[in-house]
TrEMBL record:
Molecular functions per Gene Ontology: endopeptidase activity; metallopeptidase activity
The protein's name in its UniProt record: CPBP family intramembrane metalloprotease
Organism listed in the record: Flavobacterium pygoscelis
GO biological-process terms attached to the record: CAAX-box protein maturation
Claim: Zinc is one of the keywords in the record: no
Range of residues in the leader sequence: none
Transmembrane stretches, start-end: 16-40, 64-87, 107-128, 140-159, 180-197, 203-223, 230-248, 268-286
Length: 303
């Protein structure tokens, strides 16, 4: 059983607090590279140092910004691995899946399913109302974007999954000795960390329903499937295809994507439809493909 693999008498909860602090510290170290690059450039070129988050994120070309932002997750991923191995004396496999080895077919299926859905719905939106989009494709910047995104986005998304659906899911299970509390808390924390995204300022706090709902969806498929493979594939597809396919001025990261969305975002269909319709549909597809059963026990049972 996946979540139980980290529930051991020696895995005291203070170890997860210590491990979380180490992971946060590694994340800050990774972000220093971005700050140092801006400091060096502003000093050498006599530019004013940016004083707002928007100015920081638009200081460099979007490809360089993306590279520097994503590279920080390399440090964080190394920290996650070190914390699991050195503090908790676990294998990285034990916080990935309950299977004897990582099931790459599951990752590929989830990635392919969500990639196809994202591409199809984006193209339908474009053909339905092209005035909402600008064709943004530039071969060389896009090629550079593709290399950066393909190499680093999976590290970023995997890092987040290992922290929330792996490490913290098992950590809160050690504390609560049940499954509903880890699912609830990791979903709330995952969603809440998106609160300072520019999307929240643009659309409003109601978009937190989508972020927290996504956290619940990823937590549910992890618990039901006894491993993170489906969550790893979904998250990678969501961020990678999103970065390559469409960007907008009000998103956290702008990219040299194929399309640019110039429509005015709203807090209606875009927020509730994925949570209330698409995610339940995906749960149904996964449950039929992988023969899930005993939902109540797997999502709320005691350990």
């Amino acid at each position: 059983m996946f979540i139980e693999q980290g529930v051991k008498p020696e895995n005291h909860f203070w170890k997860y607090i210590l491990g979380s602090l180490a992971i946060i510290f590694a994340s800050f170290v990774g972000q220093i590279i971005f700050v140092a690059a801006i400091l060096y450039d502003s000093f050498s070129s006599k530019k004013l140092y940016p004083t707002t988050n928007d100015a920081v994120m638009s200081y460099f070309d979007s490809n360089l910004t993306l590279l520097l932002v994503l590279f920080s997750f390399v440090f964080t991923m190394i920290a996650v691995y070190g914390v699991v191995r050195l503090i908790h004396k676990q294998t990285i496999l034990s916080v990935t899946t309950s299977r004897n080895k990582v099931d790459w077919k599951r990752i590929i299926f989830s990635f392919s399913l969500w990639s196809a859905f994202t591409i199809i719905t984006t193209l339908l939106s474009y053909f339905y109302d092209p005035t909402n989009f600008i064709f943004n494709f530039k071969p060389i910047p896009f090629a550079i974007l593709a290399v950066i995104a393909i190499l680093l986005v999976p590290i970023q998304t995997s890092c987040e999954e290992y922290i929330f659906r792996g490490y913290l899911m098992q950590g809160f299970a050690n504390l609560a000795k049940n499954k509903w509390f880890p699912l609830l808390l990791t979903s709330l924390i995952f969603g809440s960390l998106h609160y300072f995204n520019p999307e929240v300022a643009k659309v409003g706090p109601i978009i937190m329903v989508y972020y927290i709902g996504t956290g619940f969806f990823l937590g549910i498929i992890t618990l039901m499937d006894e491993g993170m493979e489906l969550a790893l594939g979904f998250h990678a597809a969501n961020n990678l295809i999103g970065a390559l396919l469409v960007t907008a001025d009000w998103t956290a990261l702008q990219t040299h994507s194929i399309f640019k969305d110039i429509s005015e975002p709203s807090a209606g269909y875009e927020v509730f439809f994925p949570v209330l319709v698409i995610f339940p549909l995906l749960l149904f597809i996964f449950s039929k493909k992988y023969n899930w059963n005993n939902w109540k026990e797997k999502l709320t049972g005691k350990i």
